[in-house]
Every structure is written in C-alpha cells, then in structure tokens.
Amino acid sequence: TVSELLSQHITPNSEVEIKGWVRTFRANRFIALNDGSTLNNIQCVVDFENFDEALLKRITTGAAIHIKGDLVESQGKGQSVEIQANFVDVLGDSDPETYPIQPKKHSFEFLRENAHLRTRTNTFSAVMRLRSALSFAIHKYFNENGFYYMHAPIITGSDAEGAGEMFRVTSLDSKKPPLNEAGEVDYSKDFFGKETNLTVSGQLEAETYAMSLGKVYTFGPTFRAENSNTSRHLAEFWMIEPEVAFMDLPGNMDLAEDFMKSVIKYVLENNKEDLEFLDKRLQDEDKKKPQAERSPMTLIEKLKFVTDNNFKRVSYTEAIDILRNSKPNKKKKFKYIIDEWGADLQSEHERYLVEKHFNCPVILFDYPANIKAFYMRLNDDGKTVRAMDILFPGIGEIVGGAQREERLDVLKEKMAAINIPEEELWWYLDLRKFGTAVHSGFGLGFERLVMFATGMSNIRDVIPFPRTPQNAEF
Ligand code: 4AD
Ligand code: MG
C-alpha cells in the first residue's frame, strides 16, 4: 500500500508495485497516486520517452492504474520517496470531462450528491478512516472490559422509546394488501402476523441479555422517522448501547465517561495524520471568520480536553436554575424561555450550559419523569427519573441513558399511564418477575461521536450514505 511505501524504510532502489487511483498527472511525468491507505499520495515518475503516448493520454484524474518500478529517494520537495516507474498499465479509464471529483475544492453539498465518489477526496477519506477507527476502538474497549457484543434485532414488534417515530415494516404487495371488513390493512394476515417496524433502539433486547450475561453492548443501525431536518439527525444512524446488571446511575456515568475518553484517546494515538489534516482544514476555515466567531481551541485540543478533564455532573434542577439566571447573549434571552420546572431543554440551552457556562462536557441527570422514556427508574421524589444525558461542546446531546425501572408494579403503572399494552412487552415485564435487579445502560449516537472527533459540522458528512427526509438516493 502507499501507506507502507511511505512509512517503511525500504532499501534504496528496491522493486515495488502499487495499484491505485490517479489524483493528478503533472507535466506528463509526475503521477500523484492514492490507494486509500493514507491521506498521502505516492509520487510515481514516468519518463515519457519510455512510454507509448497513447498510454500516457489515459493517465487521467480518477483512472485506476498499476505501476511497477524502483522506490527511490525523492529529489523533489514534499515527499521522502517516489517510484521511478518502469511499467504502467491503466486498469480502468476515467473520462476527465465527466469525472465529478476534480483536483480542486468541492463544496460538501456537491460531494453529498456524489456520495459514491466523495471518499476519493482527502477530507472524506480521512473522515471515513476515522469512523472505522472509532468503531474498532469501541469494540476494543468493551472487549477489554468484559462485555459481550450482542446483536439486537432490526425488525421488532415494539417501540423501545415509546415515541412512535417508527418506520413500518411490511411484506405486503402494495397493490393488494390483505384488508379487513372495514377496508383497512389487516396486519394479522401480513408476513409476521402483526405490525412490525424497524428498531429505534436495541435497548430493551439488550436488557434481557444484561440480565443473563451481565455486561453486554449492542452496536448496530437504528431508525427514526422523526421529521427533523437538522445537521444532527438522521433517519438511519448507528447506536452503541451498553447495558449492565447490578449497576446504578452513578456507575453508568462512570462507565460512559471512561468509555468516551478511551475511544477518543485511541484515535488521538492512532490516527494522527488524518486528525492533523482535518484540524488544519478547520483552522483554515476559521481564519476566514471574524475574530469573535473563531474557535478558541483546535480540533486536537478539543479532543485532548475531553480525555484530560472530568465531565461536569449536574442535575436537571440545578441546570434549570442556572439557565433561569443566565444572560446568554446580547439580548440576554434564550429564544425559548424556560419558566417552569419540568420543561424539556432545547439545544440552545444545552449548548449554553456546555459551551458558555461550564465550558466542558456535561452529564445532566435526574430529569422530570414526564419528559423521559417509560423505562427509566423513578426516584423517591416521585417526579424525577434516573436519566442521564451527556452533552458535548459543538454537538449537544451525544449520549442518552438511564438506570432502568426494575420494579414490576411501578413499571406496569408507567406503561399504563402512556397506553403501552402489557401484551406488547410481556417479555420485558418478565425480567422484572424473574430475578429482577438494578441495571443501567446508555446509548451513544455513533455519528455524533464521529462529528465530534472529525470536527465535521453536518451529520450527513460522517456516514457513507445518509438517510434524511426526502433523501435516499444511494
Ligand atoms: O436519547 P436516545 O433516544 O436514547 C435511546 O435510544 C436509549 N434507548 C439509549 C439507551 O439508553 N440504551 O438516543 C441515544 C443517542 C442520542 O443521545 C443521540 O446521540 C443519538 O442516539 N441519536 C441520534 N443520532 C442521529 N440521528 C438521530 N435521529 C438520533 N436520535 C438519537
Ligand atoms: Mg435522548
């Protein structure tokens, strides 16, 4: 690979061979070749006297080529070694007139429309290598800490969050679905014999495994039909959900903090080249902004800040007091004023707490019961639940979790209050009948972590093929 050729000390003049895609071909002599193994290109020097002109014409940006030659010390600036080519073959031509990825700056909007080719740019290849590394770091962390990886189902019969934001799954022939006498679709005659949907979270199933295997985590795709067209929401996103038996809310916070620090540390140590590239990109963008809007920290400084500092733990009630007494901007007001205890925080409040007031990652806990999901453990005050959200600078909510309601009677009451039929979750209630115990877990939105680690500001740019309202092109 190019990465090996550039990083290893290879004996001078040794024979090497490489396949990749042409980034540029300069002066009919210098090919910059990239194979995805690193941000850097290897320079391949072709002496045009030795090659057929027709062949050289086919060496265009985007073409796939095969080169053999000698790896030699480079005379030019910018690279330590280069290949002096003695064999060149074009494996796949690329018409320079129609190839969308030209050797120039493209807007992210344009590249989104060319999502199938955008990883041939430095920015997107760096982002996706980091995405891969983060994913590996997550598995590594759990593996080293005694967790089992559990695969939660994608098609489910329940609504894990009780929020009704689900995509329906059906095998129905849309031209003639089975109907009942009233002319409505009869799901009892459909493939599964009941209504099913794409999962919004693997948590409920993960709880069943925590209550037998002890420490488990899921890492899979989840789906939400929330029609929010923002830079932080996807209809299909990946979620990591650890779940641990006999662990309470403070234990859950400790786990989440240690886990987040560990995976960020991993990329700081193992993905320096890509991080430095993205950091420089952001600094260049920043220089174009007025002084007051510039970021006080570089990307790498932000990542190090997270690994080196404690997350601030604050109860919802304390946070509300802080927000009520704050003057967030020149107008001294939030757009959405929180005047009552019990209101849900909007992203402007979350960002104020993280970016202005505390200036560090924040864990908010003990939220009002009525703004959180039914499965959260009710506190003795009867009005708050043992929920926790982790807020990150520039991102807002990155993790949501809780200690789970382990008492059968309380859980049944909470389900009844929001009309979740017991028949739908009989298996979930069984956990509270047979050997119930305190247990907790959380969900990390993987793309929000990738956004934080790469400094990308739109969630559509950190997942290969984003799914958002009105958009499933690829
Ligand atoms: O806060 P949420 O909805 O929590 C759950 O789903 C729990 N069942 C997790 C658990 O306790 N096991 O989602 C968890 C995280 C959020 O904090 C956010 O980072 C991410 O998932 N998330 C989304 N990411 C991208 N697009 C969306 N539409 C998202 N919705 C949630
Ligand atoms: Mg949440």
From TrEMBL:
<dbReference type="InterPro" id="IPR006195">
    <property type="entry name" value="aa-tRNA-synth_II"/>
</dbReference>
<dbReference type="InterPro" id="IPR004365">
    <property type="entry name" value="NA-bd_OB_tRNA"/>
</dbReference>
<dbReference type="GO" id="GO:0004816">
    <property type="term" value="F:asparagine-tRNA ligase activity"/>
</dbReference>
<keyword id="KW-0648">Protein biosynthesis</keyword>
<dbReference type="InterPro" id="IPR012340">
    <property type="entry name" value="NA-bd_OB-fold"/>
</dbReference>
<dbReference type="GO" id="GO:0003676">
    <property type="term" value="F:nucleic acid binding"/>
</dbReference>
<dbReference type="InterPro" id="IPR045864">
    <property type="entry name" value="aa-tRNA-synth_II/BPL/LPL"/>
</dbReference>
<protein>
    <recommendedName>
        <fullName>Asparagine--tRNA ligase</fullName>
        <ecNumber>6.1.1.22</ecNumber>
    </recommendedName>
</protein>
<comment type="similarity">
    <text>Belongs to the class-II aminoacyl-tRNA synthetase family.</text>
</comment>
<dbReference type="GO" id="GO:0005737">
    <property type="term" value="C:cytoplasm"/>
</dbReference>
<dbReference type="InterPro" id="IPR002312">
    <property type="entry name" value="Asp/Asn-tRNA-synth_IIb"/>
</dbReference>
<keyword id="KW-0547">Nucleotide-binding</keyword>
<dbReference type="InterPro" id="IPR004522">
    <property type="entry name" value="Asn-tRNA-ligase"/>
</dbReference>
<keyword id="KW-0030">Aminoacyl-tRNA synthetase</keyword>
<keyword id="KW-0067">ATP-binding</keyword>
<dbReference type="Pfam" id="PF01336">
    <property type="entry name" value="tRNA_anti-codon"/>
</dbReference>
<comment type="subunit">
    <text>Homodimer.</text>
</comment>
<dbReference type="InterPro" id="IPR004364">
    <property type="entry name" value="Aa-tRNA-synt_II"/>
</dbReference>
<dbReference type="Pfam" id="PF00152">
    <property type="entry name" value="tRNA-synt_2"/>
</dbReference>
<dbReference type="GO" id="GO:0006421">
    <property type="term" value="P:asparaginyl-tRNA aminoacylation"/>
</dbReference>
<keyword id="KW-0436">Ligase</keyword>
<feature type="domain" description="Aminoacyl-transfer RNA synthetases class-II family profile">
    <location>
        <begin position="128"/>
        <end position="464"/>
    </location>
</feature>
<keyword id="KW-0963">Cytoplasm</keyword>
<dbReference type="GO" id="GO:0005524">
    <property type="term" value="F:ATP binding"/>
</dbReference>
